[in-house]
Amino acid sequence: MPKLNTHQEYIDHIQTLPHLIHPNVFGFHSNADITKDINETNLLLDSILLCSSESSSGEGQSLESLLEKLVQSILGDFPEAYDVAEIMKIYPVSYNESMNTVLTQELQRFNGLIKIVRSSLKDLKLAMVGKIVMNPSLEAASKSLFNGRVPDLWMSKSYPSLKPLGSYVADLKARLTFFQRWIDVGYPVVFWISGFFFTQSFLTGVLQNFARKYTIPIDEIVYDFEFIKDAPDMKPEDGAYADGLFL
Asked: Among the listed ranges 9-23, 49-63, 86-100, 143-157, which one has the minimum average pLDDT value?
């Protein structure tokens, strides 16, 4: 505290202090500023959205008509759930090929997400025309879709993602296309590592294949990495090619 005498001196001293307090004053790391700014921005945007009118858009379209178009655009080319039992006949559990198990486990995870997306959008269409009751979860989903956000209903069954609605749907469809091509054509030469629902299962599968091939305990194996310039046209003898890493 400053050694001052009068009230005005204290006021003058306070006015010299910075308006933005550095996190170190509170014992926080400087990165705490980033979290604070993100939280403040989200609070501001959430408050604006809460106060905004949902009755019409700039073009005079109603909430219902906008949602109907949005639901139709998502469902238009959205795939059905995978028939895992049939796929397991083509890619059965195999001691020498752990990727079969990785594939079926991934499809089971994606099936949960596909089903919740399709069912919620179909229910939303029915609710908008009054055929079923608009329950709280559907109402929350409709508001999220209208605001360009991924509904919490989907995120409860989803892989982690921070993308807005449009990018999320495009990303999800790209992931499902990757796995459909794997099913139809066979093992990809290059695996899209960030396209997996649970990336650790793929990484463990690569280790397991190597461990079983050379009869080495999996706990004794570590990864080695090689970066290549040209896209490969055939699988490596050991390990796997992968792209989509974020550094």
From this structure: 49-63
Write the CB contacts of 210 (distance below 8 Å, at least 6 apart in sequence): 216, 221, 238, 239
Q: Measure the CA–CA gap between 209 and 236, rounded to whole angstroms.
A: 12
- The contacts of residue 11 (CB under 8 Å, 6+ apart) are none
The string of pLDDT tens digits covering residues 157-195 is 999 999 999 999 999 999 999 999 999 999 999 999 999
What would the two tokens of residue 173 be?
């469809």
Q: What is the crossing angle of helices 63-76 and 136-146, to 10°?
A: 90
Name which of 153, 159, 150, 242 is nearest 197 in CA terms: 159
Burial class (CB in 10 A: 0-12, 13-18, 19+), 117: buried
Q: What does the DSSP assignment read for 128-177?
A: HTTSS---HHHHHHHHHHHTT---HHHHTTSPP----HHHHHHHHHHHHH
C-alpha 24/C-alpha 14 separation (Å) is 19
Query: Within a 10 A sphere around the Cβ of 236, how many other Cβ atoms?
Result: 11
What SS3 string covers 55-123? CECCCCCEHHHHHHHHHHHHHHCCCCCCCHHHHHHHCCCECCECHHHHHHHHHHHHHHHHHHHHHHHHH
For 121, counting Cβ atoms within 10 Å of its Cβ (0-12 exposed, 13-18 middle, 19+ buried), the class is buried
The candidate with the shortest Cα–Cα distance to 76, out of 173, 221, 207, is 173
Beta bridge partners of 190: 241
